[in-house]
Specification:
two-stranded antiparallel ribbon, 8% helix, 350 residues, single chain, mainly beta, 3 helices
């Protein structure tokens, strides 16, 4: 029993150490396709409608340590549309994100603004390319008062003794500017197939993020994302929506992929009694060597709500008991006036 306590204690220390060493690693959502502005600045303003507002919340690892909690709220819209000719347009957006990690209370809050330009390349809604830029201010802090350290393990009793000094720093904080950019190519083959391929480059200025006054550069991150919408037939109510993303930050490689299946319950029409869009989605995804998760979403008129649940399959499984995280998304897309602007019609993301 004493040996089991020691193993559990050392496992907890390992998790804390992982949190501490992972400060330079980005947080992310399992529903990465539902967080377009944080995934790639090139997604700004490209959607069906005139304004998009969404929020996401994630909580994970609550069976292991203090829960990791992540929250985001974002809004974006095309701008200067009355001054633009053809199908080209500018767009702007904002997104605010907060991430709190474990018992060390590692906090990361960012305030970001994005600007993008979409260039129509020709054909009937066939190709367009969007280039986006993001600038933000990030505040990071940590407080280690609630953490447990190996120096506080009492060999004589086999238990944790808070009276023993940890020798760890008390914490600290820092604020800095951060910049990212990205490009997305959107291709529509016909009424059945839509594809969006994007590449992003985050933290390209490698700002200093040390909270103790030293020098600790935030590693740049390169990412790729591919989202596809394939409707089974002209008359089908079912659309397959595979999504994949990969990002490389330092030596850390993240790969997410999976499939959502959309089933339309009712489509809006001016010629029938159907006045609202209604649809449900079911999906399954995999994070390489880390987690499996299921998704559910419902669309109702201009609103959408989705839910995801992770099952942990990594080396943390003995401590987490396979419990990963819960994640929620709420979305609103609005249209000003009676008609949607065709040059902004796109379903590549949310």
């Amino acid at each position: 029993k004493r040996m089991d306590l020691k193993k559990i204690f050392l496992l907890c220390i390992g998790i804390i150490a992982l949190c501490y060493s992972g400060m330079a690693q980005d947080w992310h959502y399992s529903q990465f396709y539902a967080s377009p502005l944080t995934t790639n600045p090139g997604n700004t303003g490209v959607f069906n409608g005139d304004i998009r507002v969404y929020t996401l919340y994630r909580m994970q690892w609550f069976t292991v340590t203090n829960p990791y909690k992540t929250f985001s709220v974002a809004a974006d819209a095309p701008i200067f549309k009355s001054k633009m000719r053809g199908k080209d347009f500018f767009a702007a957006g904002i997104n605010i994100n907060n991430d709190n990690q474990g018992s060390a209370h590692l906090s990361n809050t960012s305030y970001n603004a994005t600007l993008a330009f979409t260039k129509y390349l020709g054909g009937y809604r066939k190709n367009d390319v969007t280039i986006g830029y993001e600038i933000g201010y990030v505040m990071k802090s940590a407080s280690y008062g609630g953490s447990k350290w190996d120096s506080q393990y009492d060999e004589s009793t086999g238990t944790y003794n808070p009276a023993y000094g940890s020798g760890a720093p008390g914490g600290g904080g820092i604020g800095f500017l951060d910049m990212s950019t990205g490009v997305v190519w959107n291709f529509t083959d016909n009424h059945l197939l839509k594809s969006a391929l994007g590449f992003s480059f985050h933290h390209f200025t490698a700002p200093n993020e040390s909270i103790t006054g030293g020098s600790d550069r935030l590693l740049p991150k390169m990412g790729a994302q591919w989202n596809i919408n394939y409707k089974l037939s002209e008359t089908s109510n079912t659309t397959l929506e595979p999504s994949i993303m990969a990002s490389l930050q330092g030596s850390s490689l993240l790969i997410n992929g999976g499939l959502n299946v959309k089933y339309v319950l009712e489509e809006h029409s001016h010629y029938t009694n159907h006045q609202m869009d209604k649809a449900v989605y079911f999906g399954a995804f995999y994070r390489f060597r880390d987690a499996l998760w299921l998704t559910f979403r419902i669309d109702y008129s201009d609103f959408a709500f989705s839910f995801a649940y992770d099952t942990n399959i990594s080396k943390l499984t003995p401590a987490s008991k396979s419990v990963g995280g819960f994640e929620f998304m709420l979305l609103y897309k609005g249209v000003f006036g009676k008609n949607k602007n065709a040059k902004r019609s796109n379903t590549r993301f949310i």
